[in-house]
Structure formats: structure tokens, C-alpha cells
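Aim 2, interim progress: modelling of the nicotinamide-adenine-dinucleotide-bound target.
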Amino acid sequence: MKFLVTGGAGFIGSAFVRQLKDSIVLDALTYAGREENLRGVDCTFVKGNITDYELVKKVVEENKVDVIVNFAAETHVDRSIVNPRPFLESNVFGVVNLLQISKEKNLRLVHISTDEVYGDNEADENSPLRPSSPYSASKASADMFVMAYVRTYGVDALIIRPSNNYGPRQFPEKLIPKTIIRTLFDKPIPVYGDGKQVRDWIYVEDTARIIKGIVENGEKGKIYNIPGGHSISNIEIIYKIGSILGKEVKVKFVKDRPGHDRFYKMKPSIKYDTISIDEGLKRTVDWYRENREWWEPLLGDSFVEEVPWEKGY
Ligand SMILES: NC(=O)c1ccc[n+]([C@@H]2O[C@H](COP(=O)([O-])OP(=O)(O)OC[C@H]3O[C@@H](n4cnc5c(N)ncnc54)[C@H](O)[C@@H]3O)[C@@H](O)[C@H]2O)c1
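Predicted structure of the complex, ligand included:
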């Protein structure tokens, strides 16, 4: 089976590509995409945007692609609050483009969505979508287009909704790498609101393995929730990281993220095995400690340093 992995130079996408042989990766290399994430990996890299119909079609035809697995997206909720437009372009128009090409070329499309589409509600795969942020609204919109293409055109597409991922190569604007890096520098960690928002964490290599299984055996038109099964509040995870690092964490409570979901709680129709949060965090902390050259060039990024809505948005 020939795979085209869109967004395969990002955090979860590159972990997925590592599980494959001889795949094609198409990625726009936005601020979050890094070609070095694919160093030593058996794949062919094409720089390009999923909104570019002609390019994606050419890559599909030239490589005789059978299945597209789409990770490409704008992914940071904070950025979506400051500027929603790129989220609409990549996460909605980009996905419709991939659906259209899948329809024309008779491909399977596996679309990676998120638990955030349900908002802060307990949710199985049939629960209504109640997104809270521009990010989750864009992801929910894409999911609706996927289901519409299955129903109207019979496209062989399905949706996977993982919970919060963590692990090596996550851009340091996100909570766990941000906490590790800022604690290494003895800098305070900005904590939104009371810090008691609960997230359900899954280690990225577990996600990649589970997605591979679903790509191979999943059913057309189905939705697959992948909860990590390790729910913990933001403030607790920050203190856990401090204790793994053997350092005191400095916490700075700041104005809460507008629209901030209090929790995510997905119920899956299939149960998956995942490693414990303590084991996953240890592996993650070790990776960031040992790979400073990966994250040091990213430190100037304002989302690693600042709390965007404190300046207005
Ligand atoms: N990280 C999480 O906790 C999490 C949880 C659930 C679901 N997801 C979903 O999983 C997917 C991957 O997330 P991630 O954390 O690896 O994201 P990421 O931000 O690390 O990577 C996204 C990748 O997509 C690329 N990209 C963005 N827009 C593109 C476009 N228009 N065309 C081509 N490439 C483009 C970027 O260059 C980057 O390589 C996303 O769809 C996200 O919504 C993420």
C-alpha cells in the first residue's frame, strides 16, 4: 500500500511516518513543520500545501498513492484565537481539497481530527460536535465535510480523534515541552486560569501505532476516538515534570484562555493499550534534555514566551 502522509513533518505525523516504509510526505513546513523530524526516516519529502490541488494530484498520480493520511493542520488553539483565518484555510479548505482528490482518484482518506471537536463534554463517537475555539471549530467543520463526502460521493474516508498528545518533537508552544524547556532555564511557566483544566494524555508513539492499525483495518465512514486514558490537570502535570527534572517549577498564574475547555473525556468504541503518563513523561523529558539542538532555534517564538490575550486579540 502506497501512503501519502500530509503534515508528516510535524509532531504526530513524523511519528506516524516512522512506522512506515517508503512513504511520501507532503508538508508545507509552516512554523511547526521541520524537515529534521524526518531525518533518517524511509520516506520521500515533497514541500507543498494541501490546499494546492494541482500539486497534490500530481504527487498522487506520480507515486500511485493508495491512501492519504492527513495530519496537516494549524494546531495551536492560542494562535487560532489571535488569527483564525489560517485555520480555515488549512484545516477546512485543505481537507476539502484532499477529499476532492480522493473522490477523483478513488483513494482511501484517513483524516486525523481531535477530541476538542466535542468541547468539554463526555463523548462517544456519535456525540454532537460542540467546538469551543476557532481551532476546534475548524477541525469540526472538516469532519463534517469528511462525512458528507462519504455519504454523497461514497468516498472511502474515515476519521480518527486522538486526545492530547505528548512526546518527542512537539513544538515548544505546547504545554509539556514549554514546561520542560522553561524549567530548564528556571523561567516561570504561565498557567492559564486556575490550572485545574483536565486533559487526557496519550504518548505520541502510542497514537502513531494505533492510527496505523486503524488505517489498515478501519471501516469507511467510521469515527474512531482514541483517548489516552491518563487524565490529569495542567497544574499537576507541570509539577510532575518538575519532579522528573529534579528542579523546582516556578508557576505564574495568568488570565485564562478565552473559551477554555475545562476537560475532554472521550469514550472509545475500541479499547487501546497505552503507556503510563509517568513513563511517557520520563521518555519525553529525557528526549528534550538530550536534543537541545532541536529546540534551541525555536526559543524566540512569541508563543513560547508570551500570553497572547494579555495584549488583546
Ligand atoms: N498534538 C495534539 O495533541 C493533537 C491531538 C489531537 C489531534 N491532533 C491533530 O493531529 C494532527 C497533527 O497534529 P500535530 O500536533 O502533529 O501538529 P503540528 O502542528 O506539530 O504539525 C502540523 C504539520 O502540518 C503541516 N501543515 C500545516 N498546514 C499545512 C498545509 N496547509 N499544507 C501542508 N502541510 C501543512 C505543518 O507544517 C506541520 O508539519 C492535526 O490535524 C491535529 O489537529 C493533535
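Residues 173-200+230-258+276-307 form a domain with the UDP-galactose 4-epimerase; domain 1 fold (CATH 3.90.25.10). The chain has a mean pLDDT of 96.
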